[in-house]
Amino acid sequence: DAGVIQSPRHEVTEMGQEVTLRCKPISGHDYLFWYRQTMMRGLELLIYFNNNVPIDDSGMPEDRFSAKMPNASFSTLKIQPSEPRDSAVYFCASSLSRVGYGYTFGSGTRLTVV
Amino acid sequence: GQQLNQSPQSMFIQEGEDVSMNCTSSSIFNTWLWYKQDPGEGPVLLIALYKAGELTSNGRLTAQFGITRKDSFLNISASIPSDVGIYFCAGQGRSNYKLTFGKGTLLTVNP
């Protein structure tokens, strides 16, 4: 398996622009998680899906952030409009609904908003 | 909500030294996991622990699931430069598939 695939690896955008991050989970995994990582706050869970349905989005910072999972093999995290404080590394992870299984993370998208 | 306290926050060691880090929780977990994040990559699972008191090894890594189920430690023996990275602990409850992560331990190994 190719693992969790995220794109792009790096994104530099200007403040106010829309940013879309993409994720392809491991085939057969039924959970998908979006995390944000910064030096100050560490790994923060933004939102997670089970069987393509959003379960908990309480970690989404504000209305500028939205996430979708239109099918089992694709998810997006969108920021509109982007702000410099959104600069971070965003990770997608997927897992099976099996206690103790753990998550498999993608390589992340490093977002810089200037 | 559940919180994990991971310590130390960072470590600077010489190649060949042993390393120890730990996590404590205010809640009981049924599974403890340890991840390593290499620079520029996502976290990768190193060791999973499923039973209180369990001691598991993976090469130079040894991890233990505390008896109280509220703590875990990770030891690395004879460190090498490629051990550099951020180590995260994570706990999982009985019926909740969501992991709670510690804030990480940044390990630097001087050759």
Description of the structure:
The complex is a heterodimer of chains A (114) and B (111). Chain A is mainly β and 114 residues long. Chain A has no helices and eleven strands. Chain A has strands spanning 5-7, 10-13, 19-24, 31-38, 42-50, 53-56, 65-71, 74-79, 88-95, 104-105, 109-113. In chain A, the strands form two sheets. In chain A, strands 2, 4, 5, 6, 9, 10 and 11 form a seven-stranded mixed beta sheet that branches. In chain A, strands 1-3-8-7 form a four-stranded antiparallel beta sheet, with no helix packed on it. The radius of gyration of chain A is 13 Å and the shape is globular. The model of chain A has no long low-confidence stretch (mean pLDDT 94). With 111 residues, chain B is mostly beta strands. Chain B has strands spanning 4-7, 10-14, 19-25, 31-37, 43-49, 55-58, 61-65, 71-76, 85-92, 99-101, 105-110. The interface between A and B is medium-sized, with 23 and 23 residues.
